[in-house]
Design a protein that fits this description.
Length: 107
């Protein structure tokens, strides 16, 4: 994964299990941890690990299933005044890395 991350994103900084907090308009506060957060020249990249043995042909559809979680992470990053440059799901069991384009993103 490290080689793929360095080749694809050229991160300036790599944060592992980074804590995030998101305050919603209704007063609800969500807390979580981003598995891998990369600072790049374009902004911050979220990578979430999912242990799934699904084949490559199903990676994209499975990655989309986590769009709500990734959107919350992206909102927390933006809420901190930072640019979220993309969200990805990493499948370590089957060896995949898939971008998830969130609604409203041009990705």
């Amino acid at each position: 994964l490290l080689d793929a991350v360095n080749d694809r994103f050229a991160p300036l900084r790599v944060l592992v299990e980074h804590p995030v907090t998101l305050a919603r308009d209704n007063g609800q506060v969500l807390r979580g941890w981003i598995d891998l957060l990369l600072e790049t020249e374009e902004g911050w990249i979220v990578i979430d690990h999912k242990s799934s043995p699904r084949p490559r042909s199903e990676w994209t559809s499975e990655a989309r299933e986590y769009s709500g979680q990734l959107a919350a992470y992206a909102s927390a990053i933006r809420g901190a005044g930072l640019e979220c440059a993309g969200c990805w799901v990493h499948f370590p069991v089957s060896g995949g890395l898939v971008e998830v384009v969130l609604p409203g993103d041009s990705g």
